[in-house]
Amino acid sequence: MKYIVYILRSLSAKKSYVGVTDNIKRRIKEHNSGKNFYTKRHRPWEIIHTEEYPNFKEARDREKYLKTTSGRRVMKKIMKEAVTRYVH
Questions:
Q1: Is the pLDDT of residue 87 over 60?
Q2: Which is it for the CA torsion 75, 61, 40, 25, positive or negative?
Q3: CA atoms of 70 and 63, how far apart (whole Å)
């Protein structure tokens, strides 16, 4: 089974969210329908980045890293590149 680390961007606030799932379509639907405590306040969300991993441990380690200070810096670069792609 593959696991996906994903980064969401709120379309209504300057917020981002990092998570892990084995079903990205189901998970984004859950975020946008208000099933997650944090994300329901900042709906709607869009996926701006995904990374695939062969097992849950690797995916969870990456998610944890992206939530650290240095990981947030990496995430900001990813988000900036995503915005640039959509604008141009």
A1: no
A2: positive
A3: 12
Tell which residue, 82, 62, 76, 81, has the closest CA to residue 20: 62
pTM: 0.89
End-to-end CA gap in the chain: 35
Note the Cα 20 to chain centre separation in Å.
Answer: 8
Q: For residue range 2-35, what is the model confidence (pLDDT) as tens digits?
A: 999 999 999 999 999 999 999 999 999 999 999 9
Measured CA to CA, the distance from residue 61 to residue 84 in angstroms comes to 28
Provide the total of helices (H) and of strands (E) in the chain, helices listed first.
3, 3
